[in-house]
Design goal:
mainly beta, SH3 type barrels, 4 strands
């Protein structure tokens, strides 16, 4: 799975994240990364970020 490494994510990039309440359904929310919340270099479920809308979730896709 891609997007599990912190070095792949940076503030200002557009991503699809899965919010905590959407983990069961897998519904994705699109936004621009404001803050990276995962401190470790790797996380098996995706790097946790805050997008500019203030929502927090794990990155599932980086949008080009």
């Amino acid at each position: 799975m891609k997007n599990q490494q912190n070095k792949e994510i940076a503030p200002g990039i557009k991503v699809n994240i899965v919010l905590k309440q959407d983990q069961r359904t897998g519904k994705m929310t699109q936004g621009v990364v404001k803050d990276i919340l995962t401190k470790s270099a790797f996380h098996p479920h995706g790097i946790k970020v805050r997008i500019q809308s203030g929502e927090v979730g794990r990155v599932k896709e980086i949008i080009d």
